[in-house]
Design goal:
Blueprint: H1 18-34, E1 41-46, E2 51-55, E3 69-70, H2 75-88, H3 110-113, H4 117-121, H5 148-157, H6 170-184, H7 188-200, H8 211-215, E4 221-222, E5 225-226, E6 243-244, H9 246-256, H10 264-273, E7 278-279, E8 288-289, E9 294-298, E10 301-309, E11 314-320, E12 324-330, H11 341-350, H12 363-367, E13 371-375, E14 384-390, E15 397-401, E16 408-414, E17 417-419, E18 424-428, E19 434-439, E20 442-448, H13 466-473
Helix pairs in contact: 1-11, 2-6, 2-7, 2-10
Length: 491
C-alpha cells in the first residue's frame, strides 16, 4: 500500500526578514557581552543590512564599522588568496614542494622538503601549530623577533611530521606567506596590498597601522585585563598579522560570497579556494577544508567560515556563496563557547526558519530517525547526548529529549526536515545517520549511537575544554591562564 503525503494549511515563511535578523543578532551579541569584562565590545554586520554592536556596561570605547581590530588567523585566507593569484599568474604552483622556493642553503629532511604548498594551505602538511624555537614563547611580541633564519632553523630541525590529515598549523601559513615573498621579492605587506587590498578597495586593512588607524584601534583585552597588540615579521605574518575594520572585512567576505563584482582572476582564485580538499578537525560533523576556509552544510546551505584569535581580539568571517556574508569582530581573546560570537555569525548567515507547512510523513521514515544521538564538542558547542523518538500523540512529529528538560516536539515539513518555534532539524542518512539540530543560536551536528535505540537516562557528557581548542588554533594562550600585563601597551 502506498502512503500519500498530504499538506495541512499553515502560514509559510521560509526566511527571516531583516528586522528579525537584526533582533536575533542583537540578542546573541548582547548575551555575549553580559559575560565579558573590561573595555570590551563586538561588532556584527551582514551583507543584507544587519548591523549591531554590544559592549560591557563599563565600556568607554565607541564601536562602529570603522573601528580597527586585529583579525588574527583570518589573515590566512588572504595568504591563501595571494598564493592562488600567483599560481594563476604562473609564478608558483601549489603542487610544488616547498624546496622549489626555499634557498638552496636550507637543508631539510626529505619528508619535510616534500611538503607541498597545497598541504600548507589546507593544514595537511603535518607541521605543528607553532615553531618550537620562538623566543618569548606565547608573549604577544614574540613574533616580532621571529626571523626568516629562525624559520629556516626550525624547518631544518624537523625530522618527522604529524599525519597528513587536518592539523591546524600557524607554522604552515607563516611559511606559505614567506614563500610568496621570496617568489615576488616583495614584503608581504606590499604583496597583499597590490594583489588583494587595492583591487578589493580595502583601505583599512593593513599589517601596520597609520596614526589615524591607531586612533581607531579597539583596546585589546583578555580575561578582562588589558593586554598588548601582536606584531609579526614577514616570516610569520601570513599566519595572523593583519588588522582591519568591520567595513573592510564585510567587503572582503562579500567578495568571496560573490555578492560584489571582482576581476575574472580574483573570482577564479576565490572559487578555487572554496573547493573542498580534505576533512577538517570536525569530520563527524561533515566539516571539510579548502584553502584556509573551512565549511559545513546547514539548512541546505554551504557555510564557509574562518575564525581568528590573538591576545586581545577575535574575528569570524562567514558566508553562504551567492547568498549572504557575515562578519563579527571583538576586542577580547576570550570568546566563550556558550555565547560565541562566531556562533552569531553562523546563525545570521543561514537564518533559522520560522514556519513551514506541516506534512504527514510515512511512519517508516519517521521511525528511521529514532535513537540516541551524540553531539561531539566543537568550536562553538559543548558535547551533548539526546534521544529522538516518534511522538505518539502527533503521528507526523518527533520528540527530542535531553537530560531532564521538557521534551521538544518538532513537526515534519518534508521527509527529512522538522521544525518547532525554537528548534529546526535536518537529517542525513547516507552512511552514518546524522542529524543537524539548530537551537539556541547554534547548529548541533549529531550521529546516532550504535546499539539500543532507546535509553532510560539521557546524560550530557562533560563540556569540552574550549580553552584547549582556542590554544590549538590561535596565537592566544589558553584563556583560562592569566596573561602577564606588558609594560609596553599600545597608546
Amino acid at each position: 500500500m502506498t502512503t500519500t503525503t498530504t499538506t495541512t494549511t499553515t502560514t509559510t515563511t521560509t526566511t527571516l526578514d531583516i528586522a528579525d535578523k537584526q533582533r536575533y543578532a542583537e540578542f546573541i551579541v548582547n548575551e555575549w557581552a553580559r559575560s565579558q569584562k573590561g573595555d570590551v565590545g563586538a561588532v556584527v554586520a551582514t551583507s543584507d543590512g544587519v548591523f549591531t554592536t554590544a559592549t560591557t556596561p563599563s565600556t568607554t570605547t565607541f564601536f562602529n564599522m570603522d573601528t580597527m581590530f586585529e583579525v588574527g588567523s583570518t589573515t590566512k585566507t588572504f595568504a591563501a588568496l595571494i598564493a592562488q593569484l600567483l599560481a594563476i599568474q604562473g609564478k608558483l604552483r601549489l603542487s610544488d614542494p616547498i624546496t622549489t622556493y626555499l634557498p638552496s642553503f636550507v637543508k631539510l629532511h626529505p619528508e619535510v622538503g616534500a611538503i607541498t604548498l597545497e598541504q600548507l594551505v589546507t593544514h595537511t602538511s603535518g607541521l605543528e601549530r607553532m615553531p618550537d624555537n620562538v623566543r618569548g614563547g606565547d608573549a604577544p611580541d614574540a613574533m616580532s623577533f621571529y626571523t626568516a633564519d629562525d624559520l629556516y632553523a626550525y624547518l631544518s630541525s624537523v625530522s618527522s611530521l604529524g599525519p597528513k590529515t587536518f592539523l591546524y598549523s600557524n607554522t604552515g601559513f607563516g611559511l606559505l606567506g614567506w614563500i610568496t615573498c621570496l617568489v615576488t621579492k616583495q614584503s608581504w605587506g606590499d604583496l597583499v596590498g597590490e594583489l588583494v587590498l587595492e583591487p578589493l578597495g580595502l583601505d583599512d586593512t593593513t599589517v601596520s597601522l597609520s596614526p589615524t588607524q591607531q586612533a581607531r584601534l579597539a583596546p585589546p583585552y583578555a580575561n578582562g585585563e588589558r593586554t598588548a597588540q601582536i606584531m609579526f615579521l614577514d616570516s610569520m605574518v601570513g599566519a595572523g598579522g593583519l588588522l582591519s575594520s568591520p567595513r573592510d572585512m564585510l567587503q572582503y567576505t562579500s567578495a568571496f560570497a560573490g555578492l560584489i563584482d571582482v576581476s575574472p582572476d580574483m573570482r577564479r582564485a576565490m572559487d578555487m579556494m572554496m573547493e573542498p580538499k580534505a576533512a577538517d578537525e570536525f569530520p563527524d560533523l561533515r566539516g571539510v577544508v579548502g584553502d584556509a576556509f573551512q565549511q559545513y552544510y546547514a539548512r541546505q546551505s554551504k557555510v564557509m567560515w574562518k575564525d581568528g584569535s590573538t591576545y586581545g581580539y577575535n574575528c569570524v568571517i562567514n558566508f553562504v556563496p551567492r547568498k549572504s556574508a557575515t562578519i563579527v569582530l571583538a576586542n577580547t581573546a576570550a570568546i566563550s563557547a556558550g555565547t560565541s560570537v562566531g556562533l552569531a555569525a553562523s546563525l545570521i548567515t543561514a537564518g533559522p526558519p520560522r514556519q513551514y507547512p506541516v506534512i504527514t510523513t510515512p511512519p517508516h521514515l519517521l521511525s528511521a530517525h529514532e535513537g540516541i544521538f551524540n553531539t561531539p564538542a566543537s568550536a562553538h558547542t559543548d558535547s551533548m547526548q539526546y534521544q529522538v523518538s516518534v511522538n505518539a500523540m502527533e503521528p507526523s512529529s518527533l520528540k527530542i529529549e535531553k537530560d531532564l528538560t521538557r521534551p521538544v516536539v518538532v513537526n515534519a515539513f518534508d521527509n527529512t526536515r522538522f521544525y518547532s518555534d525554537r528548534v529546526y532539524v535536518e537529517s542525513y542518512f547516507p552512511g552514518v545517520p546524522t542529524l543537524v539540530m539548530f537551537y539556541e543560536g547554534k547548529d548541533h551536528f549529531s550521529t546516532r549511537a550504535s546499539g539500543d535505540l532507546k535509553a532510560t537516562n539521557i546524560t550530557t557528557p562533560k563540556a569540552h575544554d574550549f580553552g584547549g581548542w582556542l590554544e590549538s588554533r590561535s596565537f592566544a594562550p589558553n584563556p583560562n591562564q592569566k596573561l602577564k600585563l606588558l609594560s609596553r601597551l599600545p597608546k
